[in-house]
């Protein structure tokens, strides 16, 4: 466990802290010690906490034991047919 002086040095360096809750199967990335005021759902598995100045102070990722897809994280559906496979990309004639 970090002492308060170690945690203060970590924050001064701009380091982040990550925790995992096994019961909830969720990870939390602490970006700041500022008090979160609002939580916004970005996608079904990603939530962000913001402080009073709308700065992101933390990111929660749900269901981390299952490999998330790009769509899970970004909320954007990727059209794989529009992107050629690597072996096809080099064979453009």
Brief overview, please?
With 93 residues, the protein is α+β, with helices and mostly antiparallel strands. It has helices spanning 4-13, 70-74, 86-89; strands at 17-21, 26-30, 38-41, 46-50, 56-62.
Provide a descriptive summary of the structure in words:
With 93 residues, the chain is an alpha+beta fold. The protein has a 5-stranded antiparallel β-sheet with strand order 1-2-5-4-3. The chain is globular and about 45 Å long. It has 3 helices and 5 strands, in the order αβββββαα. It has one domain. 20% of the residues lie in helices and 28% in strands.
Keywords:
93 residues; alpha+beta; five-stranded antiparallel beta sheet; 5 strands; 20% helix; globular
Question: What is the secondary structure topology, with strand pairs?
Answer:
Blueprint (H helix, E strand, L loop, with lengths): L3 H10 L3 E5 L4 E5 L7 E4 L4 E5 L5 E7 L7 H5 L11 H4 L4
Antiparallel strand pairs: 1-2, 2-5, 3-4, 4-5
Distance between the termini: 59 Å
Give the biggest sheet.
Answer: 5 strands, antiparallel
Strand content: 25-35%
- The portion of residues assigned to helices is 10-25%
Q: How do the strands of the widest beta sheet line up side by side?
A: 1-2-5-4-3
Which ranges are low-confidence, i.e. pLDDT below 50, for 5 or more consecutive residues? Answer: none
- Outline type: globular
In total, the number of domains comes to: 1
Topology, number of strands: 5
What oligomerization state is this entry in? single chain
Number of helical segments with 4 or more residues: 3
- The secondary structure category is alpha+beta
Radius of gyration: 18 Å
Order of helices and strands: HEEEEEHH
Indicate the mean pLDDT. 77
């Amino acid at each position: 466990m970090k002492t308060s002086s170690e945690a203060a040095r970590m924050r001064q360096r701009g380091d982040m802290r990550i925790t995992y809750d096994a019961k909830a199967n969720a990870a939390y990335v602490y970006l700041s010690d500022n008090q979160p005021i609002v939580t916004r759902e970005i996608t079904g598995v990603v939530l962000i906490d913001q402080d009073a100045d709308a700065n992101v102070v933390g990111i929660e990722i749900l269901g981390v034991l299952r490999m998330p897809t790009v769509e899970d994280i970004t909320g954007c559906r990727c059209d794989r047919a529009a992107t050629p496979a690597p072996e096809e990309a080099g064979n453009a004639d």
